[in-house]
Amino acid sequence: MKNLFFQQSNLATGQLCRAKLMAKHLFILLMGCSCIATAYSQTDKRIAQADAYFAAGEYYTAAHLYGQVLNPSIKEKPRSDFPLNSKKNRIGITGIGISKPDILYKQAESYRLANYWPQAMALYKECFDKDPGKYADALYWHAVCQRSVGYYLPAEESIKLFLQAHAGNSVYRRAAESELQTILYIKNQLQKPDSVLYELRKINTASVAGRGVFAPTASAANQFIIASPTADSTSATVNPNHNRLFYASFENDSLQKIEPVSIDGIDGSMSQGAASISADGNHLYFTQWKQENGKTISSIYSAAKKENGWSKPVLLSLVNKEGKNSKQPFCTADGKYLFFASDRDGGMGEFDIWYAPLLVNGTTGEVVNAGSFINTPGSEAAPFYHLKSNTLVFSSNGMQGMGGYDLFAAKGFGRQWQSAENLGAPVNSSRDDLYFFTQQNSLLLTDAIVTSDRGSECCLETYAINKLPKKKMSTGIILDCENSQPLAGANVLMTDATGKTWQTKTGEDGRYVFELTHEMPDRKLLISKEEYLEKNTALIVDGVNATAWHTDTLLNSSICIEKKLVIKMENVVTVYFDFDRSLITPRGVMQLDSLYTILMEDTVATLQISGYTDGLGTVEYNQILSDKRAKACAGYLIEKGIAANRITFESFGACCPLEMELINGRDNPDGRSVNRRALINVNRGTE
User: Fold this and answer.
1) Digit-coded pLDDT (tens) for 561-617
2) Per residue in 610-662, pLDDT tens?
3) All residues at 6 or more sequence positions from 128 whose CB lies less than 8 Å from its CB, including other chains
4) Residue 283, φ and ψ in degrees, nearest 5
5) What is the C-alpha separation between 571 and 649, in angstroms, rounded?
6) Residue 183 to residues 138, 229, 424, 458: CA-CA distances in angstroms?
7) What is the DSSP string of 79-95?
8) How many whole angstroms separate alpha carbon 397 and alpha carbon 375?
């Protein structure tokens, strides 16, 4: 389970990405404070101001204000001309009852919640070193920061030290145990051999958006809608920084030609982000949010397509609930459903994944929870549905992962899902990995795009991830039909639907292996081996072995081939017939083919064929039937090219049975079947 105390400052909606942009404007306002107050009253007031910004969720600004208290400028430092002031001005005292380590701890908390992990890490360490008893939990947070910046071994040491020091009850003990599992999970992920199959690269962003681009989603061919912070107000009393929606084209690993999305009647006090366009292109769905009393209030809106831009947005009535948050809409590619995240009642945790049927007019039907295979007691966010693979990709901090939010994937739909699987490293990192996108006609991890804060000081940025396909092999076993033993050295020719061929031989275990370079439906095999009959058969796949990190192996049904009937010169060959028939059976064909081979090798050898029947039927009828049987054998060989003068035949009817047809007055069918025959004698000739 994710760190129970790991608080996010609205990363999912991009709130943190604008914190740094706000700092400059906020400091300008703060510098207008009264110059009449004394240095210490300024310090105390600044602490109160920092606390107020912290409570409002403006953590980056709060961190800087705490820093100004800890490191005042020369002009602000109080003078200690009189002995009475010496105790008050002692280093480490910043106000009544507030010590320097207290401020350091507040500053560390501010940097952590703003996702400035290196700064927070150093400050937590300083607090713990100054007073391990009072700031014991600083060691825990120090370990969390170490993990977040990739210092996994030191983080493991720190968290184990914390657990040793807090063997008994501790409010952070359970969280520390969870953090240790996270670190161990990361170490396991980093040892995966299939990491060599992944290519990860940062997507550069041109022009206005700069840093903090998040939640890209397709809007047209090679065009995306993105969200990014931007300054759009010059008022001294209004925060100028908001997240806005932009169009961008994707060229040469960068988002270019960035232009604002035109939406009528946008409320300038609110931010927009996490957009999705319906499959028919007629409706835009997006999140709008604002800060109220230190809390983020978010809702999902829809806007209709106009000739130039989009209409004034309206709330989706069934998706949004009064007093609850809904965000991050995603329209399925078939135009049927809208997925989103919400903390509405009826869920299983903080935020859950929900979905609702989309209607033609842009509204939705009733909302349904995606169920326990998707949702946890933690938070799930940023759903993306890949129709080609029937896979839901979403972010969660409620399942075992690498830290913060991780991306998970689950196959299925509605409430029928397979268990969600962590997409692992390097798709996920030790920080927050949130929004996911890939083209609907691609494989899930082919040129996918994720939003993550892994590579920056604080803000969400966009990365492209491409997983090279695993090798695909096709294998099966060739057997001897008579004894089911593997056949070594058999030739196996594989042909695809286009006529392209691949050839190999079976090994000692009778196994053949082909590497498949592309999708090859309707494959066929031609199998041949000396002294065996050729076999042409369709290839049937029984299953897939996907356990190897580099190869998926298609397991084909075993195929058996029959041995040729090899007749030596001194043999007498008996060809059997069905009741009242003179047609040559498949086995009879094999026998005659073998005789044909002998006659071709010994060009002076001759055959003498005698035809017989069982005792049923009249003498006249049996004579005719036995004659037909002898002629059928002779005719088959003559048709294959053997000269007629090398073959003589004679018919004997029911004469000379080999087996008794009546035993104790009762019919013996097996005996009769043996008597329905043609006897072929091979005579070696002389040159």
Assistant:
1) 998 755 554 578 999 999 999 999 999 999 999 899 889 988 888 999 999 999 999
2) 999 999 999 999 999 999 999 999 999 999 999 999 999 889 999 888 888 88
3) 135, 136, 138, 139, 142
4) -140, 140
5) 17
6) 18, 32, 13, 21
7) P--SGGGTTTTSTTEEE
8) 10
